[in-house]
């Protein structure tokens, strides 16, 4: 009997102890940004902006053909001396080359004959004038002598004009004449050397002079990019020789034909060359900006995180509300990333130290 009472008492005690057992409190694991970390992060606001479609092209500097002077020979002959070289700076009136010409020598011989004929005609006219005034000869004879003098004078003046044109006033009786620079500038083209012969049928220029204060840059556009190019597109030109220099301009001419060899279309950019750093034949990088590609959601590229082939951003509402969002990127241009989904304009993204936060949120 006593044993039964003892067992009953133990059972009541155990039941009572189980009824009054303290509950287990679960600890919250939600990520909260600390105040110290809050001062370390940087943020960027998502915006709606035009897609800046950039196209990188190879370019080459050329002189502005609308701002040059081409120097041609005045007559045929042989080049005795070429006094300047490609790239030399020349002043107006400076000698460029000396040419010995049989035509110029012949013109001087013709001039000597014309001067002799003119002197004879002058004496005859003076004699007839004296005779006419003395009543010995008729007026008709005097007028004929006067007309012969005027014809001789015209013939002499014509030959003298030819000499002045061919020699520019700097020819000699030996047939030598000098070609001079018509403007100040740089020799950007030279097509002649000492000893070369200039044929009468040669229509090419000997020198080209430009001041190089304004130059052209030509760039090649291949077929798959032609639809992205048009006149007026803004461009940035970066010379290979000066990678820290950026020249801004725009496309002012688009060729309507493709080069049959390279299958590329040529575009032209007009640039000011105030520092005289851009020189003909230099290679450049040409970045074309096209803002006609539509409007998309964009934000700083610093906000993007890549993980396992996917792209993410960390959105920030407050230090207690931070989330990871997957994004679909259209294009990254410069420091801007354009997306079609994942975030909306007005949302705030973390752009610095977001990788630490991303890892913390991923492990929750």
From TrEMBL:
One of its GO terms (biological process) is plasma membrane copper ion transport. Keywords: Transport. It comes from the Bacteria. Gene3D superfamilies: 2.40.30.170, 2.40.50.100, Helix hairpin bin (1.10.287.470). GO terms for cellular component: cell envelope; membrane. SUPFAM superfamilies: HlyD-like secretion proteins (SSF111369). Residues 68-211 form the CzcB-like barrel-sandwich hybrid domain. GO terms for molecular function: transmembrane transporter activity. Residues 214-290 form the CusB-like beta-barrel domain. It holds the Pfam family Beta-barrel_RND_2. Transmembrane segments: none annotated. Belongs to the membrane fusion protein (MFP) (TC 8.A.1) family. This is Efflux RND transporter periplasmic adaptor subunit. It comes from Flavipsychrobacter stenotrophus.
């Amino acid at each position: 009997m006593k044993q039964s009472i003892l067992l009953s008492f133990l059972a009541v005690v155990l039941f009572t102890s189980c009824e009054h057992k303290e509950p287990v409190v679960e600890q919250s694991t939600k990520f909260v940004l600390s105040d110290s970390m809050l001062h370390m992060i940087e943020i960027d606001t998502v915006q709606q902006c035009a897609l800046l479609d950039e196209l990188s092209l190879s370019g080459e500097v050329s002189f502005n053909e609308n701002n040059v002077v081409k120097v041609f020979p005045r007559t045929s002959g042989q080049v005795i001396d070429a006094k300047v070289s490609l790239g030399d700076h020349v002043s107006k009136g400076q000698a460029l080359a000396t040419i010995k010409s049989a035509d110029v020598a012949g013109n001087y011989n013709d001039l000597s004959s014309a001067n002799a004929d003119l002197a004879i005609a002058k004496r005859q006219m003076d004699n007839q004038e004296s005779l006419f005034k003395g009543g010995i000869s008729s007026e008709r004879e005097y007028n004929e002598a006067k007309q012969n003098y005027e014809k001789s004078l015209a013939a002499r003046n014509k030959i003298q004009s030819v000499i002045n044109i061919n020699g520019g006033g700097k020819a000699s009786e030996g047939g030598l004449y000098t070609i001079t620079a018509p403007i100040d500038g740089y020799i950007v083209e030279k097509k002649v050397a000492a000893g070369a012969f200039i044929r009468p049928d040669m229509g090419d220029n000997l020198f080209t002079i430009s001041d190089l204060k304004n130059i052209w840059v030509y760039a090649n556009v291949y077929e798959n990019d032609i639809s992205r190019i048009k006149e007026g597109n803004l461009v940035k030109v970066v010379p290979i020789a000066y990678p820290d220099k950026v020249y801004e301009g725009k496309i002012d001419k688009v060729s309507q034909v493709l080069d049959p060899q390279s299958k590329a279309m040529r575009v032209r950019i007009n640039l000011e060359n105030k520092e005289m750093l851009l020189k003909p034949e230099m290679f450049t990088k040409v970045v074309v900006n096209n803002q006609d590609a539509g409007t998309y959601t964009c934000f700083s590229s610093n906000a993007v995180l890549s993980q396992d082939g996917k792209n993410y951003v960390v959105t920030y509402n407050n230090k207690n509300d931070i989330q990871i969002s997957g994004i679909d990127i259209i294009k990254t241009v410069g420091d801007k990333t354009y997306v079609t989904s994942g975030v909306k304009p007005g949302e705030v993204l973390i752009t610095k130290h977001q990788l630490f936060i991303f890892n913390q949120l991923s492990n929750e």
